[in-house]
Amino acid sequence: MKKISVKNLILNAFIAFAILFVCSAPFIASHVAYAEGEIKSYYYIKQNTILIPEGQKINGNIQLNSTYYVEATGNPDVVINDITYRYVIYNGITGLVPSSALSKKSINNVTTPFFISNSKLTAYSEKEYDLLMFFNINSNKTECQKLKNNDKLDFIAYSENGTYILAKLADSTVGYVPKNFCSPTIIYTPNPNPINPDNETSLPGLTPDNPTAPTTSINKATITRVVLIITLCVVVVVVIFLLFKPTSKKKKSSVDDFYDF
Question: CA angle, 57 as apex, 74 and 96 as ends, to 5°?
Fold first, then answer.
């Protein structure tokens, strides 16, 4: 019975593993390409409007200014009191926005979708026990958290009546803080590059108004990387096989031995 050397056994196992990897690479790469290809879609805010927070701890409408955007969620529209609302996300806050205030089409190539303040807010009160962050400003039920003087806040939006600021603490807690306890005063500036997709036809990344359709795109660079990886794997396997291909050694005949002698 022919014995198999340890070298040949290891080599064959390596080649089998390499072939298995090459065969499974397209499947793995396709999932990576799909994950990287998922992109966000945005609706343009045509006019100043409000967002009604939904499914979150906070309760209180906030202002949304025109020229900025809301992120599409893919959820169907909601009708409340004969008014159609779109379920969207604004700067991390999920809620309902009147559809009439938004563009009918969505757009993908947005660099500055939300208003972002250049400076953080500082919470301060002469009476520290009055410095509170509220989670519900729509009812008499008090839900709040005490803040410390000089706590830093990230501005998200003004409340509907403008007396509160929806802000975020360093630990990502979101709530409403009275405007007069926050400094400096935040003044909205228009979006530096507003694009209403309803008025454009040649821009890349435009999608029709279809909330139920998934918005995905496969990056060309990702596809190129996948092809290069697969090609490289194939070349490596072939080269290794040629370099370490077992060769059979023929035993010299007695005639050759005689003449050599």
Answer: 35
